[in-house]
Amino acid sequence: MRLVIYEWCCSGGLAGPDRELVVHPGDDVNSLAREGRAMFAALVADAVRDGGFDVAALVDESLPLKLPAAPRRVVVPRGREVEALVAAARDADGVILVAPETAGVLAARVELVRSAGGTVLGPSTSVIRLAADKQATIDALAAAGVPVPAGRSLAAGEAWPAGFHLPAVRKARTSTGCDGLVIVRPGDPLPCPAPVATRLEAECAGQPVGVSCLIGPQGVVPFAALVQQFSSGPLPGYAGGEPLRDTGEQCRAEGLAVRAVEALLRRDPDTAHAGWVGVDMILGGRPDGLDDRVLEVNPRVTTSFVGLAAAAPASLVRAIVDAAAGRKFGPTALPAGFTFTITDDVLSFPT
Are residues 303 and 331 in the same domain? Predict the structure, then answer.
């Protein structure tokens, strides 16, 4: 199978005209690039280890990225990232495409590849656009009976509403990672109005969990539920994770993730959906799950793939391909004691 692997930061996006749509003043571009580099390297290495793919990896000409010897390195000239992606996709059997949802960047590339006859292993563009808008996602989930945090949208430049319950979280309506995230606790000064549209929501008590799911003709299959770890400081970033140890919490997280993904997929029922989707949530302290809340849905491979692929007994890229084709995928049990941390250049697994 001829497989193209594209990741926006590493495949020319940060050097292209869409950079200004994604990276705003004050954003942590180093964190974005670090996570992108980690996902790209993990996807390429995982596809190569399967042994059944002819892998083409799209690499920005200015980046000295080290890749395994097996994949074909497709050099992307500066400013020609979209053209290179479409050309590579035309000659491939499948494309794994990772890009920020911000400003419609992910949806636009998926749409261009499919319009050119390429096969993207991912959801429909309408579902991607829905998931990219955090307020629209929350509205769709709430309408389907999926529990979400209380909150509201704020227009660009709109002041923090008087009397809003604290602690609270403000996030850009369309963003990736923790970009634009502000947490306000009782006694904190209220932040200035944001220059972009945002969602304001009550902070939910509990542990942050991310559930990775595979989707295809057989439906939504949860793969792993990880307790998420974030860096400290004013600009937190994803730092790693470890599996939920409690069986009851695992079942709650996986069941809630499936409900959330199915709720979005029902918005476009006539489209063949495929690929990897991540669901972020807060698991509360009640065993019955009544205070669990879904925060957002990421319609693409997420950074958790980095640790999961390194620990999984079989290729997760193969699992994505098999799920998309309606086939059962291989063993997925993670080793006991599994945990991982992402640093600037290293993925580490503490013993």
Answer: yes
277 within 8 A of 323, measured Cβ to Cβ: no
Q: Is the dihedral of CA 281, 34, 91, 52 positive or negative?
A: negative
In a domain, 273, yes or no: yes
Contact 127, 299 (CB under 8 A): yes
CA angle 316, 239, 291 (to 5 degrees): 85
**148-204, pLDDT tens digit by residue?**
999 999 999 999 999 999 999 999 998 776 567 889 999 999 999 999 899 999 999
For 293-311, write each residue's pLDDT tens digit. Answer: 999 999 999 999 999 998 8
Q: Do 196 and 237 belong together in one domain?
A: no
Bridge partners for 97 per DSSP: 6
Task: Return the structure tokens found at 116.
Answer: 């050119």
| 143's tokens | 């309408």
C-alpha distances (whole Å) from 209 to each of 153, 227, 250, 305 are 23, 5, 10, 14
DSSP 282-331: EE-S-TT-TT-EEEEEE-S--THHHHHHHHSSS-HHHHHHHHHTT-----
Q: Decide: 214 and 234 in contact? Cβ < 8 Å.
A: no
- First and final C-alpha spacing in the chain: 36
**What pTM did the predictor assign?**
0.91
Domain co-membership, 138 together with 239: yes
Question: Helix or strand or coil: residue 253?
Answer: helix
